[in-house]
Amino acid sequence: MKKDIKLIAATVVAMGLLASPIASAKEIVIKFSHVTTEATPKGKGAMLFKKLVDERLGGKVRVEVFPSSQLYTDKAVLKALLLNDVQLAAPSLSKFSKYTKQWALFDLPFLFKNPQALNCFTDSAKGQALLGAAERKGIKGLGYWLNGMKQISANHALINPEDAKGLKFRIMSSDVLKAQFEAVNANPQKMAFSEVYNALATGVIDGQENTWSNIRSKKFFEVQKDTTISNHGVLEYALVTNKRFWNNLPTDIRMQLDQIVKEVTVQVTQFALDAAVKDMQTVADSGKTNIHTLTDSQKEQWVSAMKPVWAQFEDQVGKDNIAAVQQCNAKN
Ligand code: SIN
After folding, report:
1. Which of 7, 12, 42, 223 has an alpha carbon 20 to 30 Å from 33's alpha carbon atom?
2. d(CA 325, CA 122)
3. Can you tell me which atom of ligand 1 is nearest the CA of 213?
4. What is the pTM of this model?
5. What is the mean pLDDT of residues 25-47?
6. Is 82's pLDDT higher than 70?
7. Residue 193 domain-assigned?
8. For the chain, where are the alpha helices, taking DSSP H only?
């Protein structure tokens, strides 16, 4: 009897040993939740990431993409990321103020001259160092993903800063963006991306700021009579993951994922540059919103009204970072 028990015990141990390679080969699932549609730079980037992972790591890693706020808003997704309920997200850098104050740099009005200057900064040593700013809070930045320059819209023409006075503008959850609209005597309202269309359509808010890609894909132009080509700010994403999850991945898999992220990031830049041209044209062709181009002196008035905001935030975002962006502006 004793012998039988020993035999059973030995068999159980052996089965356990046999089972362990199967257990360790269990597929890793990466859930990627984001808020834009699939036909946007970020949406395409997420799908390309999934495709490359399928091709190179199929059977070992599976990526599940949830676009259009299907799973979480940006505010909720960062909490879910920290709980490891999702493993990838790419919110706007404007939405991380709970996790780092430094990424507010990207919201300073009229800081970046164009997307090329933005890329120059994010590729620089300072930009790359800044990508790690939320790590202390458990959020690891894997890369910057471009969307583009923001435009401003309302139901009357916004030509001079005075035209924005008293209007309610939706903003992302950023104190810099709040200060930016207060600087032109408007009323900024923090609101989730998924709620903006209805808020514009029902008059809960009067105006908004976003890129051509988002103005087109979320149909904001259908409920805004006037859109001004202001290029007053940028929309840039941080592709982020749960630091512990990423660092605990098997090294070979992590290295391949890092490589895929690099390749996808390059493609996202191209998707974004293409979208800025194509989506602006689609919006213009729709005839549903009047598109206004500012003269140099009109633009200068917006710069003079909004730029004093920098002084409020320069210690928080780093004067050295601002100087590094200005060097990029000079080169682009
Ligand atoms: C996004 O592009 O991810 C949304 C940005 C916003 O909330 O306006």
Report:
1. 223
2. 9
3. 2
4. 0.92
5. 96
6. yes
7. yes
8. 2-24, 41-57, 74-82, 115-123, 125-130, 175-182, 196-201, 212-217, 243-247, 251-286, 296-306, 309-317, 319-331
Q: d(Cα 169, Cα 184) in Å, to the nearest integer?
A: 11
**What CATH number did the domain enclosing 131 receive?**
3.40.190.170
Tokens 């998707």 map to which residue?
271
Ligand 1 pocket: which of 92, 106, 145, 234 to mutate (most atoms within 8 A of CB): 92
For residue 208, give the ligand 1 atom closest to its CA: 8
What are the tokens at 29?
């699932």
Other CB atoms closer than 10 Å to residue 26's CB: what's the count?
A: 8
Query: What is the pLDDT averaged over residues 220-226?
Result: 98
Domain range spanning residue 300?
Answer: 90-331
Q: First vs last Cα of the chain: how many Å apart?
A: 83
Express each pLDDT in 107-119 by its tens digit.
999 999 999 999 9
What is the total count of domains within the chain?
Answer: 1
Percent of the chain with pLDDT over 70: 92
Q: Does residue 54 belong to any structural domain of this protein? A: no
**Residue 1 located in a structural domain:** no
Q: How far is CA 180 from CA 24, 31, 79, 159, 176, in A?
A: 51, 35, 27, 16, 6
Asked whether the predicted pLDDT for residue 9 surpasses 70, the reply is: no
What Cα–Cα distance (Å) separates residue 98 from each residue in 88, 220, 294?
A: 18, 28, 35
pLDDT confidence of 19, banded at 50, 70, 90?
very low
- Read off the tokens for 302: 């917006």
Length of the chain equals: 332
Cα separations in angstroms, 181 against 118, 214, 233, 274, 297: 22, 20, 12, 29, 20
Count how many Cα atoms sit within 13 Å of the Cα of residue 38 in the half-sphere of its side chain: 7
Residue 147 CB–ligand 1 contact under 6 Å: yes
Q: Is residue 36 part of a domain?
A: no
